[in-house]
Specification:
By secondary structure, the protein is an alpha+beta fold. Helices cover 66% and strands 15% of the residues.
């Protein structure tokens, strides 16, 4: 497998792992809001951004009527998910530069950064071994968050 295919496979795994884990927020919504899974799915799908879904779960966990135990279990998992969302978002909103062999050499982040009197866009970052390791580490951490969410759901009897 050449470097290009290896990187695409890694980015695909990152997106799969993220999407699979994000969908587990449905179970946290159901448990925290005390609704059935079907209602939680409707709520989840009505919120059309990851940020909104995580915000909802955080707010439900922070409500006064929510047991402190849930807060202690859920909020650290959401914090880790938020931290990993930066790298996931980078690879969902960038374009790539290729070297003479056809391998991905750099990413160009397609965001505008507003300065005091100018703008910058297209931040360029190398796709090197260190970046590949960051993606692998991110996948591993998201996988651990996934397991943590399942543990919360099962331990607390949230709808599955």
């Amino acid at each position: 497998m050449d470097d290009f295919q290896r990187i695409l496979l890694l980015i695909g795994r990152l997106n799969y792992t993220w999407t699979n884990t994000e969908s587990l927020l449905i179970h946290l919504i159901a448990g925290l809001a005390k609704v059935d899974k079907e209602t939680a799915i409707v709520i989840f799908l009505t919120l059309n951004t990851t940020r909104a879904r995580i915000d909802l779960v955080e707010r439900l966990a922070k409500m006064a009527k929510t047991p402190r135990k849930y807060r202690g279990e859920i909020l650290p998992l959401l914090q880790r998910l938020n931290e990993q969302s930066k790298l996931r978002n980078k690879y969902n909103h960038c374009i790539y530069s290729f070297d003479s062999k056809g391998d991905i050499s750099h990413t160009h982040l397609m965001r505008i950064f507003d300065g005091k009197d100018s703008i910058k866009y297209g931040k360029v970052e190398a796709m090197d071994d260190a970046e590949i390791a960051r993606i692998s580490d991110c996948i591993g951490d998201i996988t651990e968050v996934n397991k943590g969410i399942w543990n919360v759901v099962r331990t607390n009897g949230f709808p599955q």
